[in-house]
Amino acid sequence: MTAAKTRAIDRDKAAARCEVAWRDAPGLWGFLTTVDHKRIAARYVLTTLALLFLAGMLALDMRLQLTFPSLHRMGAQGYNEAFTLHGSTMLFLVSVPVMEAMAMWLTPLMLGQRNMAFPRLNAFSYWMYLGGVLMLWVPHALNITPDLGWFQYPPLSGPGYAPGHRADIWAQMITFTEVAALSVSVNTVATILRMRPPGMTLARMPLFLWAMLVAAGMTILALPAVMLVTSMLIADRLVSTHFFDPVAGGDVVLFQHLFWFFGHPEVYIIFVPALGFVGQIVETFSRRRVFGYTPIVLSLLTIAILAFGLWVHHMFAVGLPKLGASFYTAASMAIALPTGLQIYCWIATLWGGRPRFDTPLLWVIGFIVTFVIGGLSGVMTASAPLDLQLTDTYFIVAHLHYVLIGGALFPLFGAFCYWFPKATGRLLSERLGKVSFWLVFSGFNLGFFPMHILGLMGMPRRIYTYGPQMGWQALNIVATAGSAIAMVGALLFVANAWLSLRRGAAAGPNPWGAPTLEWAVASPPPPYNFTHPPVVDSLTPLWPPPETMAVVTGVSLDRREVLVTSAVDAEPVHLQASAEPSIWPLAAAIATSAMFVASIFTPWALVWGALPVLVTLTGWFWPHRSLTPGVRRMLGRAS
Ligand code: HEM
Ligand SMILES: [Cu+2]
What is the pLDDT of residue 7? Predict the structure, then answer.
């Protein structure tokens, strides 16, 4: 037998052993107990996409209402509910979680690992996120929809002006999603810092992982502020504390400060992962190493630091001292520098490479164009005197959609096209992909560019109708038509995925000839990802494709085990048992959800509701010795 043949047989044997150790229980039980990062992440992504669709339908509804003056298909209350549900869903239930879900799916694969550092925390995160989805959308089905916008400022949201539970529902939805987001972020940081394959020093980490490390760090610093402020709001409403009641010495501006201390970094928590997608896609499709790796990493870090120093640009209309306003103007303009630098690096990479304009790259180019426009309107509103004119007009609606859709969703769609073959084993249709890109790109610009002009003409945001004498009709018709075209493009994108899943050509492990580790395994990857952790010696380990990949042996093939390495140099440190499937994360999430929901009705829920949480967490963390194979077989677990 030739050496190559023996190697192949050994490989199959190792794979069969891993298969047994990493397999999930069949059926519903397996669905509820799985800790496979890929399964949980896929679930996360699909849920966010369903919500993207629902929130998009709400947007179309609003656009139809605004197409002509004095329409009455939607009343003021209905419109308030629509933009609140649309904005809150898009930001808290779509954009942030979808980026985290992509990280959850990709991180272990890019690291040559079998799972994340805390597999059960991933499962818990998803169930908590689902709780947040239900917290907002079940009341909507019961006609108790929050109606005060995606940032519910007091005093409007305080006990005096917002009776009933709409405001509480919104505030508690935040708590759910932030617990979920913190869980993934802690997990991502731990995984990236301590589970890199030997050889992958910090300086050899793919840009996506850098981006996720930065975004997850920002999440950990920013999200507690919003959890705190929404909890304070609930306390004001439930037990009559006076955090935001000026009569009793409270301060409504405090709400704005805490909200935007989170709110501005939030935008970057959405945008930085998108930069990570751009990095991988530009590199692969230019077929050369990315130009300016180190400056890009440094600029990611700079963005992260600056992003915490400019939240007050959302509050220029409050009437702050002039010096403060000037400082925040300067800081807001400064953040354009590191961002601009990255744009130059992407362009330089494409320039110096031999670019292949497949759909993922088209989305990236769409991103560059659109994001530059959104960045420019951002620099304009960063100037305090100008912002006083523009705030609360359609100029802001245009700006925020340019950065969120152009800056985050376009790269995300590019990322879907790029990793779809890896996740499903099928190629997407390039033709349908290109048509859907052009429809979304042109529809989006047609729909949103006129909003800048509408804003300059004085059309305020958050109005449900306007009189014919305002002269806003023509541009509103264009805006609605553009949005509708973009929606058709997005539906075509989904249709493409659906058709390709059934009839697409087989993808093979590395259809794009990409350089990073996730492309070294089969498509779709097996449950254990890698039989042996690879060893890497460059930033682009698959360029040129190695004959055989150097690997670490000694990580168990029969038990769930992962390799832990040192934070900077990625030297192997020890082998660690990786969690088995478990029902406890779901149980803990149900107990926590019950406590959260009840606590908008009575403060005692925090006392009595904590008991079931305690029980489920005890179950989760109950220590158990590693079982011998005999005992495991007796218990019916995979041995
Ligand atoms: C084609 C897709 C979309 C259309 C047609 C659309 C349309 C709209 C409309 C009509 C409003 C209300 C403006 C107002 O009356 O003030 C709005 C608000 C908003 N949208 Fe979108 N949108 C779309 C996608 C998105 C996406 C993808 C995001 C986020 C990732 C997003 C985030 C927001 C936010 C944060 C608000 C502000 C809500 C508030 O004022 O409280 N939108 N959008
Ligand atoms: Cu901001």
Answer: 81
CA distance 281 to 273: 13
User: How far is residue 415's CA from residue 212's CA, in Å, rounded to a whole number?
Assistant: 14
pLDDT tens-place string over residues 209-249: 999 999 999 999 999 999 999 999 999 999 999 999 999 99
Angle 262-268-273 from CA coordinates, rounded to 5°: 130
What is the mean pLDDT of the segment spanning 414-432? Answer: 97
Confidence class of residue 639 from pLDDT cuts 50, 70 and 90? very low
pLDDT higher than threshold 60 for residue 179: yes
Nearest-ligand number for the alpha carbon of 151: 1
Cβ–Cβ under 8 Å, residues 580 and 559: no
- Considering only residues 434 and 320, tell me which one the structure prediction assigns the higher pLDDT: 434
Ligand 2 center to residue 47 CA distance, Å?
27
| Among protein residues, the one whose CA lies closest to atom 38 of ligand 1 | 87
The CA distance from 295 to 299, in Å, is: 6
> How far is ligand 2, taken at its centre, from the CA of residue 204, in Å?
31
Query: In testing the pocket of ligand 1, which one of 53, 81, 90 has its CB within 8 Å of the most ligand atoms?
Result: 90
Q: 204, 46, 180, 185: which is closest to 104 by C-alpha?
A: 185
pLDDT digits (tens, 9 = 90+) for 61-86: 999 999 999 999 999 999 999 999 99
In angstroms, the CA 506 to CA 613 distance is 46
Q: Which atom of ligand 1 approaches the CA of 66 most closely?
A: 10
Would the pTM of this model clear 0.85, i.e. be above it? yes
Give me the chain's average pLDDT, please: 95
Pocket of ligand 1 (CB under 6 A): 56, 59, 62-63, 83-84, 86-87, 90-91, 95, 149-150, 397, 400-401, 404-405, 409, 461-462, 483, 486-487
Å from CA of 310 to ligand 2 middle: 7
Q: Would the CA dihedral through 273, 275, 276, 278 be positive or negative?
A: positive
Q: Which residues of 427-441 are buried (b: 16+ CB within 10 A; e: fewer)?
A: bbbeebbebbbebbb
Q: Residue 328 Cα, ligand 2 centroid: separation in angstroms?
A: 10
> CB within 8 A of 285, min separation 6: which ones?
353, 355, 356, 357, 358, 360, 361, 364, 512
pLDDT in tens, 2-16: 777 888 888 899 999
Residue nearest atom 17 of ligand 1, based on CA coordinates: 83
Residue 548: pLDDT band with limits 50, 70, 90: confident
Say how many Å lie between the CA of residue 260 and the centre of ligand 1.
18
Tell me, what amino acid is at 538?
S
Q: Whose atoms come closest to the Cα of 266: which ligand?
A: 2
- Please tell me the number of the ligand nearest to residue 403's CA: 1
Q: What band does 636 get if pLDDT is binned at 50, 70 and 90?
A: low
Residue 451 CA to residue 442 CA, distance in Å, equals 15
